[in-house]
Amino acid sequence: MMNNMDILIIVFIAIIGAAVLGLGLMFFGKKAWQRRIGFFITTLLGIYVASVSVRVLSVMFPLQYALGIAMGALSAVAFVLEISGKGKRKVNMLMGMVALIVGIINAFII
I want to staple 75 with a disulfide (CB 3.0 to 4.6 A). Which of 10, 35, 99, 104 is the partner? Predict the structure, then answer.
């Protein structure tokens, strides 16, 4: 029988797998649409991880709470800049990557 910790580990592994898939497509995709899909996976997953960390790290950990909000905002800004066509693509990709990696570390590891 699975307990809550087992479910958390399964969710963590699924998020890591989706992050690796998104980052791999974003940086190693051969065609532009593959890189764009990887970018969208990365930024949307970054927003999801930020929302998880905001829900979990409410009042007890104010620095991690603020970091979760900042990473969610960074991921949302990268997403909006990519959709609107403003900004450089590499900078948007870098912002999405940083937001996702720091968000995962903030939500699950620290």
Answer: 99
Task: Give one DSSP letter per residue of 3-23, joined into a string.
Answer: -HHHHHHHHHHHHHHHHHHHH
Nearest alpha carbon to residue 70 among 107, 108, 16: 107
Residue 85 three-state SS: coil
For Cα atoms 36, 38, 43, give the angle at the middle one, nearest 5 degrees: 95
pLDDT tens sequence across 4-20: 888 888 988 999 999 99
Entry pTM? 0.86
How far is 96 from 53, CA to CA, in rounded Å?
17
User: Which residue has 């990365």 as its token pair?
Assistant: 42
Angstrom distance (rounded) from CA 23 to CA 67: 21
